[in-house]
């Protein structure tokens, strides 16, 4: 249509204006028949007829044509105006209105049948047929038209005289009412005309309403906080009502901006059809849950990503009919779209029954593009491999066309979805198809958020970014430092940490970092795109529904904030933008290769110049403290003392299918052990017969150091170092306020198990023999 | 008859400043403020003005005057802008003054630096000089 749209719009506006006048003129003519008015009416109908013929609206043309003929007879005085004729003409005007409304909505004339009306209008042209029953002149749009011939003539015909007296006007009025009733009934039955039940409202007004409701919600929250100190039951009841009404009002006002997803989906059958033809494929689209509603802005935001995904499904997912037939599938491919509501989210699923993602090809592609290393290529899981398609640069137009999987610009799709707080997930089954799962919030204006405190201020973190909360008692769990980036070991993965206060007050001269002592820390684990990081905050408060408000011009360049909100107590809190925060703290670049093995990072750690070190602390035989760098520790094990075997001069145990030589710390550091040694060993033996072993690995060979008691893992700056006073000790330092010896592990091994470094295989033979 | 303009006046440091009265939405007492870390230095924080979030600009910092002593609390002059209200923090509020157009003069030579950029001109009052702030420039941090 395009250009035609404009012309049709003009036609509609003009015709509607004419119709309004027609109504008026027809009623006027009832009272006072005049040639002038009749000519005007005739001209209006004639204009509509002419224009609709030009657009090819044949139904409208037929209706107006019948009306025009009747009017021309009246104009030429070959017919006198009767109430029947007037109601016939009014019915015609209503029919024209209906058709115009349909055209405005759909661009089509609609399915309604107007033959009854046309026949009525034609019958009225014959003077003899003028006495007419108050027959429904306009049939209900969707009801099947009754056969014209069998028009019931039961009701007594009203007087066929021109309307002059009150009686007649009254009769006319009644008839008009009857017509109205019929039309009303028609609307109630079929597809009711939207214009009667809907009004157009400026989106700006809706936005203002939403803002005001947001305010009301906040005021309500304040009142509720206040009620906790009140005991007046009447007051409590009132606030309860206020609470309920506010919630309902909020819900309904939010719904005013809601639009069904079908509005967006409607274009997909066409998109798919065109693309399928272009690719020589047959694809059928099916939809479920088109009526699922979501916020207008969100609907606009997901339009492009979803279209992209659907195009991808046709282009890369569905096979050609030949391929499908060969695989025993229906030659016509299926794309299934489903939208559902789920606890404040909209789930959108796009499924195709195509070939599925070719995981090997994706891995190869990612390797060739340098996105993963050769080592990762081997170890990467299928799940992780699928997610590679979301990496930026994974596919640029031409490069991908020869990849049989999907992935054209999937990073863009993902980014767009994530920008509105959504998530996207892919599941694939070879030869069975691919499913794309998109989860987006219902609305952006009110979001659930976690409130945290930092440096005396509250900050809100949008819930969708939140993964978990961890409280670390630093004395038990370690925060390590890798290349100057603090990390926390979360279930075997390294989680980079960002200290919120350090990020926010880095340049603030008034903020005294030294005054902050953290013996326990709160980590909020957040998801920023592909990456996770831990945000260290002072404390974690509640989860709350907050109203997102925009920040002023002075915050334009600050990507760290997503907006601000007003808390229950009326104070303003800033909303953190997790992605912006991650970018600012540079946690993304460091973890870009999160597939990196932990070992490699640990290697980097030892090479790090940072003089803060993670140390493993254990008790020396004489109850002193000994430390070794944690980086040297491969594992900590607990073994029963009964499993120790002898192999030549060394104690060994069988460990992970290998033989692990053991060194006993209390034998190695003999100097001061006499005093307590007997005590110690007997204690270890009788208590639980379990030995603490620190495993050190070098060149794929391990050696175990048996210690009495492991104390802690700490991160410390090693200061005030003095040289060692005995063999096997590098020196002493003050760690956590205690004088601690630094163990020379390598020196000890060289002294007590020299074969470990030299020719480890020899040692194996020795121990075997 | 001499043409006059109305100005909302206020004191900052030793100076008397004025802003066209139609640009001032309202004047309010000091409100509790939320700090806005990383925001430009002239932004002291955010206030809740009847449900609207308003950025508070410290006029002393904007004009590169010395900071206000911590024991006195500033007043908020709420300015209408195209992008919603903004609050200017000032020391004290003066009267609304009708100033003769005839007494208008360009900023005195003694004004230096940023103030010269942000002061549109002066009116000579009986016993004091009224400095008229170019509010658009004052709120635009790119002007320095």
Please give a handful of descriptors for the protein shown.
heterodimer; A: about 775 residues; alpha+beta; Four Helix Bundle (Hemerythrin (Met), subunit A); Helix Hairpins; Heat Shock Protein 90; six-stranded mixed sheet; 26 helices; 30 strands; about 40% helix; B: mainly beta; OB fold (Dihydrolipoamide Acetyltransferase, E2P); five-stranded mixed sheet; globular
Report the β-strand fraction of chain B as a percent range.
Answer: over 45%
Q: What is the second-level CATH architecture of chain B? A: Beta Barrel
CATH topology of the largest domain in chain A: Four Helix Bundle (Hemerythrin (Met), subunit A)
Radius of gyration of chain B: 15 Å
Could you please say which CATH topology of chain B applies here? Answer: OB fold (Dihydrolipoamide Acetyltransferase, E2P)
Helix content of chain A: 40-55%
Our estimate of the beta-strand percent of chain A is: 25-35%
How would you characterize the overall build of this protein?
The complex is a heterodimer of chains A (769) and B (144). With 769 residues, chain A is of the alpha+beta class. Chain A has five domains: 3-197, Four Helix Bundle (Hemerythrin (Met), subunit A) (Up-down Bundle), CATH 1.20.120.160; 203-257, Helix Hairpins (Orthogonal Bundle); 262-441, Heat Shock Protein 90 (2-Layer Sandwich); 452-599, OB fold (Dihydrolipoamide Acetyltransferase, E2P) (Beta Barrel), CATH 2.40.50; 611-768, OB fold (Dihydrolipoamide Acetyltransferase, E2P). Chain A is 42% helix and 26% strand. Chain A has 26 helices and 30 strands. In chain A, helix 3 (58-75) runs parallel beside helix 5, helix 8 packs antiparallel against helix 9 and helix 12 (296-317) runs antiparallel to helix 18. The radius of gyration of chain A is 41 Å and the shape is elongated. The termini of chain A are far apart. Mean pLDDT of chain A is 74; it is low at 129-173, 182-192, 396-408, 590-610, 673-687 and 759-769. By secondary structure, chain B is mainly β. Chain B has a single domain, classed as OB fold (Dihydrolipoamide Acetyltransferase, E2P) (Beta Barrel). Helices cover 10% and strands 46% of the residues of chain B. Chain B is globular. The A-B interface holds A 211, 214-215, 218, 455, 457, 504-505, 507-508, 549-555, 558, 560, 564, 566, 570-574 and B 32-40, 42-43, 45-48, 50-55, 57, 81, 83-84, 86, 139, 141.
